[in-house]
Backbone:
C-alpha cells in the first residue's frame, strides 16, 4: 500500500485535482452515506496569467468549499498523472531493504527527475518468470518533492488540512472495491479504465491488489480537438456538443449529429482501444493463469457511447462504473463516474 501519511482525522474530504476541474467529496464517518460533493472548474492559464498553478488551485479549492456542507478541514489529497511517475518494473526477487534498494536502482534511470528529489514508493504485484529466473514485478510510483510541496501548499492555503496523500490508481481500486464487494469479485481480475480530460489511467487488479498501472496520453481533450477539426468549430463548442450528445440516450440523439460525432471521434477511440489492448496483452503474457473478467469504465469522460465503442475493440465484458452506488442519498451531480477518484480518497482508512 502506498501512503504519504500525516495525523489521523475523521471523515476526511477527498480532493481530486484534475487538469480541468477539482472535485471534493466527503462521506459520513462510517462511510455509508454521502455528505457533500462538488465539482469546480479550474481557471485555465493563458498568456496574461502570471499566477503560479498552486495559487490558482488554492483559490479554486477555497471557492469550491464556500456555502457547502463539508465538515471539518481534514483532507486526503491525490497525486494523479500530472504529478506522478508510474511504471511497472521487474527486479530480482528479494525481501526487505534489498528489495527497496533494487527498486530504487531500477527506477533511478527511468524517473524524469533526480532520484534524490523523488518521493518513491512501490507496490509489489506478483512473482513472474523471466526465462529460467523468478523475478518480482513491482509498480513504482514517484513524485517530485517540489511538486508535492506545491500541491500541499495549495490545499493548506484553501483552509484544508492534509491528513494523507494518496495516489490515483489506488484510490480508484478502493472506490470500485465498494462497488464490487462479492467474494467472487475479490477473486477475479479486472481492468479499470479511467478516462479523464487529458489522459487515461489503466489499472489491472485482482480484487483490490494492483498488478499493472499505466497512463495513456489520450483523454477528453483529444476527443474535443478531433471533433473541432472535423466540424470546423471552436474547441469549447465541440466540447459542449460531444458532452450533451454523450449524456443523451440513443433514442434521444439526432442520428445525423450522432453519426458526425462518431466519425470524428473514431480515430482517437481506435487508438485508445489499441493502447488498452496492449495493456491487456501485457497482463496475459506476464501474469498468466487467470483471464480478465471485466472492464470497468470510469472518469469524467465515461459515457455509454464511449463504452460501446471501446467494447467493439475488446473481447471483454464492459460496464460503466458507478462509484456512488453504495452511498445514498447522493448529492453529487453530473456523471456519476466522474466521482470515482474522490470517492476512493474519502474511503481511505487513516492510521
Residues:
Amino acid at each position: 500500500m502506498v501512503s504519504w501519511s500525516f495525523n489521523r482525522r475523521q471523515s476526511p474530504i477527498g480532493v481530486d485535482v484534475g487538469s480541468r476541474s477539482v472535485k471534493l467529496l466527503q462521506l459520513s464517518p462510517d462511510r455509508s452515506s454521502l455528505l457533500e460533493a462538488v465539482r469546480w472548474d479550474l481557471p485555465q492559464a493563458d498568456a496574461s496569467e502570471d499566477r503560479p498553478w498552486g495559487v490558482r488551485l488554492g483559490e479554486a479549492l477555497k471557492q469550491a468549499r464556500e456555502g457547502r456542507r463539508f465538515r471539518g478541514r481534514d483532507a486526503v489529497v491525490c497525486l494523479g498523472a500530472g504529478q506522478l511517475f508510474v511504471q511497472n518494473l521487474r527486479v530480482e526477487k528479494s525481501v526487505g531493504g534489498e528489495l527497496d534498494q533494487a527498486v530504487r536502482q531500477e527506477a533511478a534511470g527511468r524517473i524524469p527527475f533526480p532520484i534524490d528529489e523523488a518521493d518513491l514508493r512501490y507496490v509489489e504485484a506478483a512473482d513472474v518468470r523471466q526465462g529460467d529466473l523468478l523475478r518480482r514485478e513491482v509498480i513504482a510510483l514517484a513524485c517530485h518533492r517540489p511538486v508535492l510541496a506545491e500541491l500541499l501548499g495549495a490545499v493548506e492555503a484553501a483552509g484544508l488540512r492534509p491528513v494523507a496523500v494518496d495516489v490515483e490508481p489506488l484510490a480508484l481500486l478502493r472506490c470500485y472495491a465498494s462497488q464490487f464487494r462479492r467474494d467472487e469479485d475479490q477473486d477475479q481480475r479486472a481492468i479499470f479504465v479511467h478516462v479523464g480530460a487529458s489522459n487515461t489511467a489503466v489499472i489491472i487488479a485482482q480484487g483490490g491488489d494492483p498488478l499493472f498501472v499505466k497512463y495513456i496520453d489520450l483523454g477528453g481533450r483529444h476527443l474535443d480537438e478531433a471533433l473541432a477539426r472535423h466540424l470546423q468549430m471552436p474547441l469549447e463548442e465541440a466540447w459542449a456538443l460531444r458532452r450533451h450528445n454523450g449524456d443523451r440516450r440513443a433514442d434521444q440523439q439526432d442520428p445525423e449529429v450522432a453519426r458526425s460525432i462518431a466519425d470524428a471521434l473514431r480515430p482517437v477511440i481506435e487508438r485508445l482501444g489499441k493502447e488498452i489492448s496492449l495493456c491487456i496483452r501485457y497482463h496475459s503474457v506476464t501474469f498468466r493463469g487467470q483471464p480478465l473478467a471485466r472492464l470497468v469504465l470510469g472518469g469524467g469522460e465515461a459515457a455509454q457511447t464511449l463504452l460501446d465503442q471501446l467494447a467493439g475493440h475488446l473481447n471483454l465484458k464492459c460496464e460503466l462504473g458507478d462509484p456512488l452506488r453504495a452511498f445514498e442519498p447522493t448529492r453529487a451531480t453530473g456523471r456519476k463516474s466522474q466521482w470515482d477518484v474522490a470517492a476512493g480518497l474519502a474511503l481511505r482508512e487513516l492510521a
Notes: The mean pLDDT is 90.
